[in-house]
Each structure stands twice: as C-alpha cells, then as structure tokens.
Recover the amino acids of this structure.
C-alpha cells in the first residue's frame, strides 16, 4: 500500500477506517465523528494486537534476565527503538531515548542540559506559540539557575515573527526551544530558519514535535535540530510512551536526570558509573509494551506513507477552512500560510465549552478550552477556542457534519 497519494488514500478510506475499532462506535446515539486527534489519535488494530501479544506471550523485564522471555522482550523493545531511529532518520539508536511522552522529553532536557549549564545571565529562547509543556519546564529551570526565559513574538495570523526571534536571539542564548507545529492554531513554524539562525550563533535547538509527528515527514539530520520530542499517543500509538531524539555529542556530555536501575554500569556506596547511551537516560523499568506498540504504529503509518497522509490532511484542512468560513459569526483563529490539519475557531454568542458539549450530543468530538497554550489565548484576547483536528482517517463528510452541528447550535442559542 506504500506510495499512496491523497486521492488513493481517500479511495482506501473504508478499509483504513475499519482498522480503527474506536471509530466504529456510536456516541450518544450517533456514529462517532472523532475530530480531537490533536489531543490524542486513535490506535489501529495492529497496535492494539501488538500490545496484547506482548502481554500474552512476551511479558518480562528487559535488559536483565538470561531467560528466553527476557531476551524476546528485549529484542522487541530494542527493535522498536530501531523503528523510531529509522522513522526520524537518526544516525544511531544511541540517540533515541524512550520517555513517557513529549512532556517528559522536554523536562529531561530542561533538567539535564539546562540545570548543568545555565546560570545567571544565560537565556532560553522560546516562542509565543508554545504548549505549556514547552514553557513551564524552562520556567522551573530558570527559577533554579537564575537564567532568563525570553519569548519571540507572533503576528495576528499566528505565525512566528522571525524578526522578533532574531532580535531575541542573543550572545546569552544557551538554547532555543520551539514547537514544530502549534497545537492551539496549527501554524507550522519555520524550523529550518530557526535552526540556521540559532546554529550560526552556536546555540542548540530543541523542537517540540508533538503536533508535527503525525503530519510531517521528520528527518532529524535534514532538520539539523539538536533535540526532537514527541509522544506515541499522537502518532496512532499507545499513551505513556514518547521519544527524545538527541544529538549524540550533546547527550554524551549531559548528566543523567533520574537515577535508578538500568541507567548504571556499576554502583557502590562510594560512587556510581553510568550506563552508555541511550540507557543513561532510561532509569527504571520502561513502558515496554508501549514502546513495542509505538514501533508498530510507526510501521502502520509508514506503510500508508506520510506524503499521502499529508496530502489528504491538507485537503481536509482546506475543505474545513472553506466550509467553516461560510458560517456567519464563526471566526477562525490562526490563519498562518503554512498550517497542519487543525482549525481553531470561535462562534459568536456561544462559549466554546457549550459548543463542545452540544456537538458531543451529535457524537462529534472536538477539543475546547485553552489547549494548554494559555499565552496564545491571551495574545488573541480569548478565554478559549473550539478546535477540530484531523487525522488521515477523517473525511469531508465528517466536516460537513461538524458544520451542520455548529449551525444547529447557533439556532439553539438564538
Ligand atoms: N507539545 C505540544 C505542541 C502538544 O500539542 C502537546 C499535547 C504536548 C507538548 C504535550 O504532550 P504530552 O503527550 O506529553 O501530553 N497537546 C495536547 C493538545 O493539544 N490537546 O491535548 C493535548
């Protein structure tokens, strides 16, 4: 099935959707229309089966036992790491660290890289588009070290203001941390320019790829980023598992951030020798079934192909933008020239939470609120927005149903 383009993906939609048990349900008496993929996407049977197979036949601890099950579990776990490496085009599995998700990946860099290198006068540079997961860890490390958090501005379309970014990048900047795609608005950030500008000053760059990973082909060598963080549950994989890619030379120089089993070579009461990469950053028993499920999710997505997924999702984005724009009183928040497949909007006279509750009565799941990006809401002077976020398994019919449900909510509130 590899090499699909957007239209052949559309033709295969019935078969693709049948891979997802969650999508086959009725919610509140209506077929589920799942448009909250930005929060978490659904898992195909292949992933569910892989987790079940692990629990039924392979479960054991990894890297520990000489017995057969431990060896099989270790092989499956390390095989998943190699899938991630290939998916990101990282040079080595030493650069692939399993974490609980994007949030933990960013905290790892903040606590290990940040705490060990930052001091008074040093600066961390983020953007005004960040999820709280790429703000609060830096605030914490700044509070602990005396460093300062700087924020590059955005414009009214929800695009990064590159001149503000350039002005904020200074001789004191020690790290740039930015989202690849904004979860609140869908804006794709100019990460190539960001990396080039930062590297010209010798500053490493962390990319928060939580919202990019299901939509864009990620090649960490082409991006030339120093860290890349993402979560399994936004890539049709399990929750509680995620990845931190890190450039090997940086990871080598960073201290561990959590201590415990697996991250050591030897321990005595006089001192400890740490394990090699990537285990130095994987203290304790990892989420073995989660990693295996993520490996299978990567296989699943790769088989469809990210170019086909991106083409279909761009079609959905354009269709949704056009159709929603016909609704009087509806305002789309975030109109960047380069967007991933999500639409944030407000409807005059209806609080987003009320709208979300009404849509739920028709089986339509959207996210409403500040999307863990309160500074973005503050910038637009809004308490919240409604957000429809699309996966490759969504259809234009589902967008039509969204439009009809918004219009009937308007009649209810009139
Ligand atoms: N960064 C971005 C850009 C995100 O969108 C999210 C989750 C995170 C970090 C945190 O990911 P986690 O897996 O560690 O929780 N975003 C959302 C969302 O938009 N709606 O629910 C979760």
């Amino acid at each position: 099935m590899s090499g699909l383009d957007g239209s052949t993906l559309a033709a295969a939609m019935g078969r693709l959707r049948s891979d997802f048990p969650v999508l086959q349900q009725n919610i509140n008496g209506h077929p589920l229309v799942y448009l909250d993929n930005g929060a978490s996407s659904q898992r195909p049977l292949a992933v569910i089966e892989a987790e079940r197979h692990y629990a039924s036949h392979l479960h054991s601890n990894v890297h520990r036992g000489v017995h057969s099950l431990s060896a099989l579990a270790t092989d499956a776990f390390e095989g998943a790491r190699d899938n991630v490496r290939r998916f990101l085009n990282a040079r080595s599995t030493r650069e692939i660290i399993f974490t609980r998700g994007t949030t933990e990946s960013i905290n790892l860099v903040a606590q290990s890289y940040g705490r060990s290198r930052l001091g008074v006068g040093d600066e961390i540079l983020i953007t005004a588009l960040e999820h709280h997961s790429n703000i609060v860890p830096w605030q914490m490390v700044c509070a602990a070290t005396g460093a300062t958090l700087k924020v590059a501005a955005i414009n009214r379309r929800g695009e990064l203001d590159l001149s503000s970014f350039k002005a904020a990048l200074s001789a004191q900047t020690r790290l740039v941390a930015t989202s690849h795609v904004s979860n609140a608005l869908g804006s794709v950030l100019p990460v190539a320019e960001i990396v080039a500008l930062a590297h010209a000053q010798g500053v490493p760059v962390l990319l928060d790829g939580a919202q990019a990973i299901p939509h864009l082909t990620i090649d960490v060598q082409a991006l030339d980023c120093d860290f890349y963080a993402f979560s399994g549950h936004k890539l049709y994989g399990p929750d509680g598992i995620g990845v931190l890619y890190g450039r090997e030379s940086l990871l080598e120089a960073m201290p561990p951030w959590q201590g415990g089993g697996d991250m050591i070579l030897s321990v005595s009461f006089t001192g400890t020798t740490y394990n090699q990469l990537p285990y130095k950053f994987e203290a304790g028993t990892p989420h073995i079934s989660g990693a295996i499920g993520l490996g299978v999710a990567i296989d699943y997505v790769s088989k469809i192909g990210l170019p086909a997924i991106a083409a279909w999702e761009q079609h959905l984005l354009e269709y949704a933008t056009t159709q929603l724009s016909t609704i009087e009183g509806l305002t789309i928040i975030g109109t960047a020239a380069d967007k991933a497949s999500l639409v944030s909007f407000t409807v005059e006279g209806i609080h987003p939470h009320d709208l979300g509750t009404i849509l739920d009565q028709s089986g339509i799941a959207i996210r409403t609120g500040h999307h863990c990006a309160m500074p973005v809401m503050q910038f637009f002077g809004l308490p919240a927005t409604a957000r429809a976020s699309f996966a490759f398994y969504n259809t234009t019919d589902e967008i039509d149903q969204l439009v009809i449900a918004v219009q009937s909510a308007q009649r209810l509130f009139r």
